[in-house]
Amino acid sequence: MNNIEQKTKGLSQNLQNWLLKHFGDKDITQYKNLALSLIFYKFLSDQFEQFANENLEGEIEYSALDEHQHENLIIALKEEGQSSLGYFIQPKYLMSSFANAYSNNDEYYFLEDFDQAIIQFQQNLTEQSLQVFDGLLSDIDTASSLLGNTGKVRNQVLGSMLVDLNSMELYLYDNSKILGKAFFSIIEFMAMSLGKKKGDFYTPAHVSALMASIIHTEKSRVRTLYDPTFGSGSLLIQTDKTLDFVDQIYGQDLIDGNLKTARMNFLINGYHYSKLKLESDDTLEKPRHLDIKFDVIVCNPKFSQTWNNNDAKKSDPRFAHYGKLAPKSKADFAFIQHIVYSLEDDGIAVVLIPHGVLFRGDSEGAIRKFLLERLNCIDAVIGLAKDLSPVIDTEVAMLVLKKNRQADDKVLFINAKDFYEKQKAFNIISPEQIAEITEIYKTKATIPKISEYVERSKIVEHGYNLNIPRYIDLFEPELEIDIDDVAFKLEQIDENLEQIDLDIRKFCDELSVRYPFKI
Known about the structure:
By secondary structure, this protein is an alpha/beta fold.
């Protein structure tokens, strides 16, 4: 384990211990946004303090500047910070300033000042940075019952939280990956604690890595990357870091809390706010980026969620040509249709789906037929193992979608359900297994029981059913039984029993006791 890995592991554990200490007896759904916002404010404070100190070149520490005595210097640093970072934090509003003051005097009452710090942060955003930073600290509510029932108690609880957070080294001087990975580990910890129903804002790191790896076989430098249900943003981040260059990152998510988490995630991972175009709204009802075609799309939508498949959708350009709408109780194909519509002609998309998408009939069967027959955009079907995390506890598959396929291109089926390593709580796809699956996709290799490159005419014969066992022979023949060998072993057992019986009779005679078994 190298130095960066050690620091990442240590910081991850410190943040998790901080969560358990201060929020351990509370519902994660209630404290998630507050906890992440406080960690984010620690990051913002440390980053601005580091930025200011670098500009001061050792003449004086930024935290020691007096707002009256050093007014002109602070104004200059404010302008520099807004231009470079997009925000400004006064010396007295740094997290370290609050934490040190409370640490020196636990009677120090600072709630009003802390509220003012949040307000000032918002007011000092620039017109450009407001699009990304807006409202990111709004979940820090000093009047929240999560902190206590009285002002005094809330002051003590928040003071203790700030002191413990301030004591942590975020290693901003070393490498942004350290805090980025540690922050992701906290998101992962929360998602896994929430489980399948409420933790679906998170795509497991190993699944994200596989999706990004598949993308990288086709793309390296792209203008646009998009996720229509970005959750925590980690799938987008993984894909961006896997590719050589991405100019702009777009995304949309239904839940406003996810928008905040994702923006924090990006900024903590070292992204400049100008690269991000993330929005909050219902992608199927109110798509925010419908005028753009994207080079790369990744997506892990909530499985089989309900949606409004009213008559108005029949004239929506995303769904109009299929003749059918996805059923109200299962929006899986609605997301796939949205993705296909949003994809650039030479683009590639990878979407995580429940297995039912491969074979369910009625309107879903009609949509699947259109995708295969008319659009010819399904490039590969990759079946994965089940229990890939507490959030993904069933078998899932990945669809690889491309618009620029040739008329005679086949469809690749990969059975990767045995590509996993067993962990204590769930399974993971190892880096070596990710590389192996990626190589199969890249080379279109045919491997018995693992992969098959299938003519579309064969898929037509199967009624456009994409269930993997229809195309990959998974049958395991029973071992032939050698009757003579079985008879020989039974004879040996019989001989052994006879000898055991003789030995028991001998012992009974020696002990002058009755033989206990029937003759």
